[in-house]
Amino acid sequence: ALSSAAIFLFAVTLGYYSILNHQSSLRVERGGVEISQVEGEAYLTSSDPKDKILLKPGVRIQEGQKVITGSKAILNLKVSDGIVVRVLSDSEVSFRVIDLSTHYKIGIDLEKGELLAHIRKNLKKEEFVVRSENINAEVRGTSFSFQNVPKEGTRVQVLEGRVAISARSES
């Protein structure tokens, strides 16, 4: 009877361990953009929308991944020492480019919702571009709000500094 209980306990433990190790095919790695604060529910997804991770501080977003915030969520991201981004509620943000090698190159597609960004001045080698379906905003040393509302369009509000706005080409 004791060996049956031990075998059962071993099987349950092995099954639980297997579930923990196979939770998701999404990779949470070092590098990338770090989640510094989460209020409400926000998720990280990849190309398969069913494959998602509930975000918490310390998780890092990698190139090609997407963040989705819930109806009462706010998500703070630390890109570098000089770049901070806040993703507001009901937003979908894809990280098209994250290159943190010799200089920072960040490309974000705001599919819907709103984000606020603060980029410290004098980051000459850094490239920070936010796109919607119809415009690009290229930023250096500024604070701004970028809002994409389906069927209403895109709004950019400069809070400090300058933002270069251009019509988006297909690239």
UniProtKB/TrEMBL annotation:
<dbReference type="InterPro" id="IPR012373">
    <property type="entry name" value="Ferrdict_sens_TM"/>
</dbReference>
<protein>
    <submittedName>
        <fullName>FecR domain-containing protein</fullName>
    </submittedName>
</protein>
<feature type="domain" description="FecR protein">
    <location>
        <begin position="66"/>
        <end position="163"/>
    </location>
</feature>
<dbReference type="Pfam" id="PF04773">
    <property type="entry name" value="FecR"/>
</dbReference>
<dbReference type="InterPro" id="IPR006860">
    <property type="entry name" value="FecR"/>
</dbReference>
<dbReference type="GO" id="GO:0016989">
    <property type="term" value="F:sigma factor antagonist activity"/>
</dbReference>
